[in-house]
UniProtKB/TrEMBL annotation:
SUPFAM superfamilies: vWA-like. Keywords: Calcium, Calcium channel, Calcium transport, Disulfide bond, Glycoprotein, Ion channel, Ion transport, Membrane, Metal-binding, Signal, Transmembrane, Transmembrane helix, Transport, Voltage-gated channel. PANTHER family: VOLTAGE-DEPENDENT CALCIUM CHANNEL SUBUNIT ALPHA-2/DELTA-RELATED, VOLTAGE-DEPENDENT CALCIUM CHANNEL SUBUNIT ALPHA-2_DELTA-4. It is found in: Membrane. Pfam families: VGCC_alpha2, VWA_3, VWA_N. The keyword Amino-acid biosynthesis does not apply. Belongs to the calcium channel subunit alpha-2/delta family. It comes from Rhinopithecus roxellana. It is a single-pass type I membrane protein. SMART domains: VWA. InterPro entries: Ca_channel_alpha-2/delta, VDCC_a2/dsu, VWA_N, VWF_A, vWFA_dom_sf. This is Calcium voltage-gated channel auxiliary subunit alpha2delta 4. It comes from the Eukaryota.
């Protein structure tokens, strides 16, 4: 078959062997790989091999993490004690006059050059420990949102009282210099943060951050909860009332977290689940479900008459069934009734389902300015341990919704419980656009709720601190885990805190943005090969153990795949809701090589100018002592070895390995230097750069051309994260080389600034190191065309070559990417040889389907909801028209409030409107050549004709030579692009519905504070209704919504301890 177009298989093999031999000679010469192999061979007898005990390793890491986190909690406890004492010693002074450092006004001057009021001089210096932000580590500053008056008596008294925290902030930081932000968030709205910073308003001059609205505050303030929201969609809710109701629901959803459960029922003449798939159940209030509900809420339309009792019965039945089935939170339960009024008190419903125990609280929200039905709404709340509030404008929504949290928090406050609350990680917005791994950007909040005596069990506020996940993962050193190994953390809900495949950012245009669900990625979505979720189940159950799994690991942005057998070792981290996992890949992580060399010899070789160490790895601790923070890791190691700095703490095992690698690889510098000197300027430019890396994170490199001529200047720099050692992983070239035979070269076509500047990177494999070169593609092509002019003696005279018009020749890599072709446009980024589909049947190349459960896709043009429309489009248009006429005056009156009202919910909604991409699941193909097939030939069916081909492996590489007959047109097979395809779920399908209803295994928080007898005794003061409330179970009902909204609230800024005052 191979001779059908005049070229024998022997000739193709000769071309492949000649090209492969030329490449091998060139690459071994410029890389120095043979010299490096010899040097390691010379010291082989001195190497010590130790087996890695994965369980012992994970236990040690877990213990270190536990100790670190305990120190953070102790720092926050110091703040709690100081805050409690300061509040007890403070007497409220209505006429207090007090100047403080307002974060927005500091260093601001008026037109006369004088400092503005509350804006005195505040020294700020850039600090690397705080993301290079200008800070003042001597004192804290105070931030207030725009809608809080900075001289209100409550604010002034609170700020004055909390001045006592400054000394504790500084003392904590001096005791533990790894601490990050410390803060106190007051229920009155001010936010004291250490170190002090300058706070910049947004482009509209508005300060949107309100510490009381943050998710961690809510989780610290209340125990887990099951919530059923009932919304009136009858005809009377038209216009602005419905708009307010929708925003009220959205605001309630924003107060829920991953430990809460929720459902939403719309009612008029009938009861409608706004998501029919969730009928009769509660679903976890994770980000995906909350956002799904928000979309459905926006589509609600009004119609008919509101029948409240049916909706109440449905809500109570759901909550009862879930409680009896031991599902949901198994803690607080509540019904949120959102309506413009109630015509009766529905006492029979409460007698049947809720009295006398009142295990379900009922919170009522009266929508609109009318008060005709207010008494009934108050009665319902006050007789079911709830709270009544009236929301007449959009600007009222946030404060009024938050009242239910005060009620739910009181049992915890009165109990004086000291529960440690750890919340989901959040991303530091200042670091979104910076280079580096995701661990640089994620912070882990924690909170510990404490209380002290004051009347009515009202919250004073929250103090807290953040933990940078990067600092936590430093306690699982990368070098101990092998080339493909890694450590990861997950929560009691199965969400990952840290994982090398966690990708919290995505690119939209030129901007990097955090994905909406970056902190709720499930372990099963990154370790998706574990179909039975055995690993996830064991870790959520806080087990200590091990399991093995064959996995497919994506590399090179999903273009390639590794087939590995991983051993997983896992255990819990005591006193936290987290579990730790360690992965060791067989063949790479089971054993560790320990070298031996003298300090004197190693120190000399560390001083070579071509040597660098992994900047992300911790050879020495340089972030505690301010004098050490400017040191690079290499400088710190040298100072440690020369005993120049007795205070430096270093990882002695890693330093020994670096010394050993420095000694073994030192001859490479002299070799590369001599080679560069022997290359004349007139000689053909062959290689831009040679480089090597070792398993200790040591990197050497040498240029053979001027730095201005290097095709890719980002290579081996932090700007090209995949090419350097990071806290997450080894470089891509190192990982690729490790999976090929020692001494062979792996080619990877890279692109400098665009498709016009490709350059191959060819690392060679070694057990403890990888060495490689970077060259321009043009040199590779010239070598190839020259090699294919060769002819074998068997075939006689050279009658054909790949340059002839009657032959098509390609060089492709083991994943099907084209490196060399006559048609330069085929050598383009991401282009795969187009006939791969046919070769499935020939079993030369097999397709691997990969999945990405963190993808971002363009949304559909139209949103298709499962919710049934409640009115026709024409009716909706008429309703909207009537509303415009009837509510115009009210709208104009409220315009000033609407214009100044600006909260997180509105900002999030605005941002969502602008986003072009949304979270989705995708699948994509990866093609892999069968390495056992060294040569093959056959026929490709191309419609009316047949195309003959020959495939030959190119020795000592991951490349293949493909020769075909161009006379048969195979354009029916377009180039195969590795484009991801969104996995479409049909919402109405039983499969999708089952997926949405499924309740993944989770572990509930250890504590629950649902009720306290003292709350029941005090409940009901201030109730003003037409008849006295039932003595069965009382709630909290203000007589008038004009009362001051200064009930203290607990607050968090990323992780914290909640301070209560009773």
């Amino acid at each position: 078959v191979a001779t059908a177009f005049g070229t024998g298989g022997g000739t193709v093999k000769l071309w492949a062997d000649t090209f492969g031999g030329d490449l091998y000679n060139t690459l071994t010469k410029y890389s120095g790989s043979l010299l490096l192999q010899k040097k390691y061979k010379d010291v082989e007898s001195s190497l010590k091999i130790e087996e890695v005990d994965g369980l012992e390793l994970v236990r040690k890491f877990s213990e270190d993490m536990e100790n670190m986190l305990r120190r953070k909690v102790e720092a926050v406890q110091n703040l709690v004690e100081a805050a409690e004492e300061a509040d007890l010693n403070h007497e409220f002074n209505e006429s207090l006059v007090f100047d403080y450092y307002n974060s927005v006004l500091i260093n601001e001057r008026d037109e006369k050059g004088n400092f503005v009021e509350l804006g005195a001089e505040f020294l700020l210096e850039s600090n690397a420990h705080f993301s290079n932000l200008p800070v003042n580590t001597s004192i804290s500053s105070v931030q207030l949102p725009t809608n809080v008056y900075n001289k209100d008596p409550d604010i002034l008294n609170g700020v004055y009282m909390s001045e006592a925290l400054n000394a504790v902030f500084v003392e904590n930081f001096q005791r533990d210099p790894t601490l990050t932000w410390q803060y106190f968030g007051s229920a009155t709205g001010f936010f004291r943060i250490y170190p002090g910073i300058k706070w910049t308003p947004d482009e509209n001059g508005v300060i949107t951050f309100d510490c009381r609205n943050r998710g961690w505050y809510i989780q610290a303030a209340t125990s887990p909860k099951d919530i059923v929201i009932l919304v009136d969609v009858s005809g009377s809710m038209k216009g602005l009332r419905m708009t307010i109701a929708k925003h009220t629901i959205t605001t309630i959803l924003d107060t829920l977290g991953e430990n809460d459960f929720v459902n939403i029922i719309a009612y008029n003449d009938y009861v409608h689940y706004i998501e029919p798939c969730f009928k009769g159940i509660l679903v976890q209030a994770d980000r995906d479900n909350r956002e799904h509900f928000k979309l459905l809420v926006e589509e609600l339309m009004v119609k008919g008459v509101g029948v409240v009792d049916q909706a109440l019965r449905e809500a109570f039945q759901i909550l009862k069934q879930f409680q009896e089935a031991k599902q949901g939170s198994l803690c607080n339960q509540a019904v949120m009734l959102i309506s413009d009024g109630a015509v009766e008190d529905y006492e029979p419903v409460f007698e049947k389902y809720n009295w006398p125990d009142c295990k379900v609280r009922v919170f009522t929200y009266l929508i609109g300015r009318e008060v005709s039905f207010a008494d009934r709404m108050k009665w319902i709340a006050c007789n079911n341990k709830g709270y009544y509030t009236q929301i007449s404008t959009l600007a009222d929504t946030q404060e009024n919704v938050m009242e239910y949290l005060h009620v739910l928090s009181r049992p915890m406050v009165i109990n004086h419980d000291h529960d440690i609350i750890w919340t989901e990680a959040y991303m530091d917005s200042k670091l979104w656009t910076g280079p580096g791994s995701s661990l640089r950007k994620l912070r882990l909040p924690h909170s510990l709720c404490l209380s002290f005596q004051r009347s009515h069990g009202i919250l004073l506020g929250v103090v807290g601190s953040d933990v940078a996940l990067r600092e936590l993962m430093k306690l699982a050193p990368r070098y101990k885990l092998g080339v493909h190994g890694y450590a990861f953390l997950n929560t009691n809900n199965g969400y990952i805190l840290s994982h090398p495949d966690l990708r919290p950012l995505y690119r939209e245009g030129k901007k990097l943005k955090p994905k909406p669900n970056y902190n709720s990625v499930d372990l099963s979505e990154v370790e998706w090969e574990d179909q039975a979720e055995s690993l996830r189940t064991a870790m959520i159950n806080r087990e200590t153990g091990t399991l093995s799994m064959d996995v497919k690991v994506p590399m090179d942005k999903g273009k390639r795949v590794l087939f590995l057998t991983n051993d997983y070792f896992f255990t819990d981290i005591s006193d936290t809701p987290f579990s730790l996992g360690v992965v060791l890949s067989r063949g790479h992580g089971e054993y560790i090589l320990l070298g031996n060399t003298s300090v004197e010899e190693g120190l000399h070789d560390l001083l070579h100018p071509d040597l660098a160490l992994a900047s992300d790895w911790i050879y020495c601790i340089t972030d505690i002592d301010p004098d050490h923070r400017k040191l690079s890791q290499l400088e710190a190691v040298i100072r440690f070895l020369t005993r120049e700095d007795a205070d430096l703490e270093c990882d002695e095992e890693l330093v020994r390995e670096v010394l050993f690698d420095a000694v073994v690889t030192a001859p490479m510098e002299a070799y590369w230097t001599a080679l560069a000197l022997n290359i004349s300027e007139e000689a053909e430019q062959v290689v831009d750069m040679a480089f090597l890396g070792t398993r200790a994170g040591l990197l050497r490199s040498s240029l053979f051309v001027g730095s201005e001529k290097v095709s890719d200047r980002k290579f081996l720099t932090p700007e090209d994260e995949a090419s350097v050692f990071t806290l997450d992983s080894f470089p891509l070239w190192y990982r690729q080389a490790s999976e090929h035979p020692a001494g062979s070269f792996v080619f990877n076509l890279r692109w400098a600034e665009g498709p016009g500047n490709p350059r191959p990177c060819a690392p060679g494999a070694g057990p403890v190191s990888a060495v490689g070169v970077q060259m321009k593609l043009e040199f590779l092509q010239r070598k190839f065309w020259a090699a294919t002019r060769q002819c074998s003696t068997v075939d006689g005279p050279c009658t054909q070559s790949c340059e002839d018009s009657d032959l098509d020749c390609f060089v492709i890599d083991n994943n099907g990417f084209i490196l060399i072709s006559k048609r330069s446009h085929e050598v383009s980024r991401g282009k795969v040889w187009g006939w791969l589909r046919t070769h499935h049947s020939l079993r030369l190349i097999f397709r691997v389907t990969m999945y990405d459960y963190q993808a971002m896709c363009k949304p559909s043009s139209h949103h298709h909801s499962a919710a049934q429309p409640l009115v026709s489009p024409i009716s909706a248009f008429l309703t909207a028209t009537r509303w415009l006429l009837q509510e115009l005056v009210l709208f104009l009156l409220e315009w000033s409030v609407w214009g100044s009202w600006y909260d997180r919910g509105a900002e999030a909604h605005k941002q969502k409107k602008q986003d072009q991409l949304q979270p989705c699941d995708t699948e994509y193909p990866v093609f892999v050549y069968q390495p056992a097939i060294r040569e093959a030939n056959g026929i490709i069916e191309c419609g009316p004709c047949q195309k003959v081909f020959v495939v030959q492996q190119i020795p000592n590489s991951n490349l293949l030579l493909l020769v075909t007959d161009p006379t048969c047109d195979c354009s029916i097979f377009p180039p195969v692009l590795q484009e991801a395809t969104e996995v479409k779920y049909i919402l109405q399908s039983s499969g999708m519905c089952a997926r949405m209803r499924s309740q993944k295994l989770r572990r509930r928080p250890d504590s629950c504070h649902a009720f306290h007898p003292e709350v029941r005794v005090e409940a009901g003061r201030g109730w003003a209704g037409s008849s006295p409330p039932s003595p069965v179970c009382l709630g909290l009902c203000p007589a008038d919504r004009s009362m001051p909204m200064n009930t203290p609230v607990p607050v968090l800024f990323g992780g914290d301890i909640c301070v209560y005052a009773l």
